[in-house]
Every structure is written in C-alpha cells, then in structure tokens.
Write a structure and sequence with these properties.
Elements lengths: L2 H8 L5 H11 L12 H11 L6 H28 L8 H9 L12 H21 L6 H13 L1
C-alpha cells in the first residue's frame, strides 16, 4: 500500500477541513490534498502520525545514554556550584558563563556526552586553578576562601 493510501485510511474518520488545514501547514501552504503530496512529503507525514516501533535494544541504549547524560549534567552543576560559577537556586550567572567562557559556547542541554565530558574537564581545571590562586595573598580566590573559613567559625 502506498503512503498516500495509508494517509487516506488514517485520516478517514477525521474532519476533512482539519485534514486539509494540517496538510496545508505541513506543505508550507502548497496544497490541501493528500493526492498532491510528493512521495517524500507523504512519507514524512505518515512517519509523524505512525511512528516506527523501536526495538528493545534501541530503547535500552537510549535510556542508558539519557542516564549517562543526566549524570554528567549533575556532575557539571555540582562542580559549577563549588567553583562559584553557579549560584544555588539560580542559573543566570551559570548560563552566561556557558555562553561566554565554556568550551562549546552553548547551553548545557545542547551538549552531547563527549562534549559534557570536555566541559567537566574544563570545570575541573577551573577548580584547580582557583585552589592554586587561593594560595596567593589578596587574590579573588584567596578572599573567597577566607570568606568560607570565616563562615565556618
């Protein structure tokens, strides 16, 4: 069965005006008829309404990747709070840092797992540089360390 015939069967019980509006918007206002769709457009529209079933292995891999990604994001956020780049409860300062000073210059959710590892590595370097700088008197890192120590007393 061709994709156009499958679309006709799929939309048979729907209001023809609603179907025409959907096709019109999907084709960029070129047509309102299923028969006027190109084969590529018909396949894309069909894939939207009838997504292909994923295998268990694919779903498992996607879940694993999502868990790994969430783990890296949480590590990055924790490290950013430790270094002072991110304030607790606020993302404004952290987002500005991500857009201006991070390795990839984009927001945190747009990174892939290898990119997240690079950002984590960059934040580790910031942490060690701050620790090294805190040993020098009158630097910003030295003052920040002193403020933390005062709060401990």
């Amino acid at each position: 069965m061709s994709p156009k015939e499958e679309l006709k069967q799929l939309f048979a019980d729907r209001n023809p005006a609603h179907v025409a509006i959907e096709i019109n918007g999907f084709t960029g206002f070129r047509t309102t008829l299923i028969d006027d769709l190109t084969m590529d457009e018909a396949m894309k529209l069909l894939s939207i309404h009838v997504p292909k079933q994923k295998s268990i292995e694919q779903e498992n891999d996607e879940l694993k990747n999502e868990l790994l990604r969430n783990g890296w994001i949480s590590k990055i956020l924790k490290l950013a709070e430790e270094t002072g780049i991110k304030e607790k409860g606020g993302f404004y300062k952290f987002n500005n840092w991500m857009y201006t000073s991070s390795v990839f210059k984009k927001h945190l959710n747009a990174h892939s797992i290898p990119e997240l590892q690079k950002v984590h590595q960059q934040l580790q370097a910031v942490k060690t540089n701050n620790a090294r700088s805190a040993t020098k008197v009158m630097t910003k890192a030295w003052w920040d360390k002193a403020e933390k120590n005062i709060k401990l007393n």
